[in-house]
């Protein structure tokens, strides 16, 4: 083979398709593709794609802002139902975020262990570890001890009791400082 033959070779050393010896069946398939597929492809590229509008960007479904449970009247069951659905949707989102953060942290650990398996696990991926830890703390504060069948009223009562406890702790701290 001369130098000019090497320039015409495609990847893996195969000559172009037009220079290969082909069976009659392969030639017949190429002719049929030329007669049936070529006009359709030409029409799609030159007519359909030119006049097709720009694709509409996909965004996540946006839910309208519903009032929270503290804005609902006691006998307004529709408002309570909407607030409960919004709470359950937000809980699902929060736990999916926790799953994603946990996945990122584990992937970081695996990647760094593959690079240097003798590193201490406590020193690797500190940023991911801190973000995951903070998200877990926030989820525990918001959803801890509620259970899987809890509703928005249970979460509201938990929040109310936590705020009362924090206020009483602040009062105890101030009274112990003054005494």
TrEMBL record:
Q: Name one Pfam family in it.
A: NDUFB10
Q: Which domain of life is it from?
A: Eukaryota
A single GO cellular-component term on record: respiratory chain complex I
Organism expressing this protein natively: Sarcoptes scabiei (Itch mite)
- Keyword rRNA-binding assigned to the entry: answer is no
Task: Tell me the compartments it is located in.
Answer: Mitochondrion inner membrane
Question: Family, per the entry?
Answer: Belongs to the complex I NDUFB10 subunit family.
Q: What is this protein called?
A: NADH dehydrogenase [ubiquinone] 1 beta subcomplex subunit 10
């Amino acid at each position: 083979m001369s130098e000019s033959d090497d320039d015409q070779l495609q990847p893996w050393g195969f000559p172009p398709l037009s220079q290969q010896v082909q069976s009659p069946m392969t030639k017949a398939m190429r002719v049929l593709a030329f007669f049936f597929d070529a006009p359709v492809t030409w029409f799609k590229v030159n007519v359909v794609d030119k006049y097709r509008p720009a694709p509409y960007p996909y965004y996540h479904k946006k839910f309208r802002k519903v009032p929270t449970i503290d804005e609902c009247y006691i006998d307004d069951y529709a408002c309570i139902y909407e607030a409960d659905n919004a709470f359950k949707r937000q809980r699902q989102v929060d736990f999916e975020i926790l799953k994603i953060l946990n996945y990122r942290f584990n992937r970081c650990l695996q990647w760094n262990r593959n690079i240097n398996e003798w590193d201490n696990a406590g020193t690797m991926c500190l940023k991911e570890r801190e973000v995951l830890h903070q998200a877990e703390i926030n989820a525990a504060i918001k959803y801890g001890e509620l259970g899987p069948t809890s509703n928005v009223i249970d979460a509201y009562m938990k929040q109310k009791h936590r705020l009362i406890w924090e206020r009483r702790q602040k009062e105890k701290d101030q009274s112990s400082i003054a005494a």
